[in-house]
Specification:
Layout lengths: L1 E8 L3 H10 L1 E4 L2 E6 L1 H14 L4 E7 L6 E6 L4 E6 L2 E6 L6
Antiparallel strand pairs: 1-3, 1-4, 2-3, 4-5, 6-7
């Protein structure tokens, strides 16, 4: 089991309700908990099915140099990039610029 965090934006209420079954909602759209890899993968499958036009980031503790890993779903200016084995975040330019 490892610490898991999910942050949602503009997702349907049914996904928020589903996440609240497995994780604690500590702020609007921010969920934390302790979950096994199998549970984390099942939660991610639910996110893909139910997020619709929203966006989601899921982060969890790992035994890596950074101590965590993450994945994203949906459109967001922040996109994950792999840089020499480290997972970092890159920002897309603002559309109006």
């Amino acid at each position: 089991m490892s610490m898991l965090m999910v942050v949602t934006e503009n997702v349907p209420p049914r996904l928020r309700g589903r996440l609240a079954v497995w994780l604690l909602e500590v702020r609007a759209g921010v969920y934390i908990g302790d979950a096994s890899r199998k549970t984390r993968e099942m939660i991610w499958e639910q996110i893909i099915v139910l997020a619709e036009d929203g966006n989601v980031v899921m982060a969890w503790a790992t035994n890596t140099e950074s101590g965590f890993d993450f994945q994203t779903y949906g459109n967001n200016r922040r996109i994950p990039v792999d840089w020499e084995g480290l997972r970092l975040v890159s920002f897309l330019p603002i559309e109006n610029e």
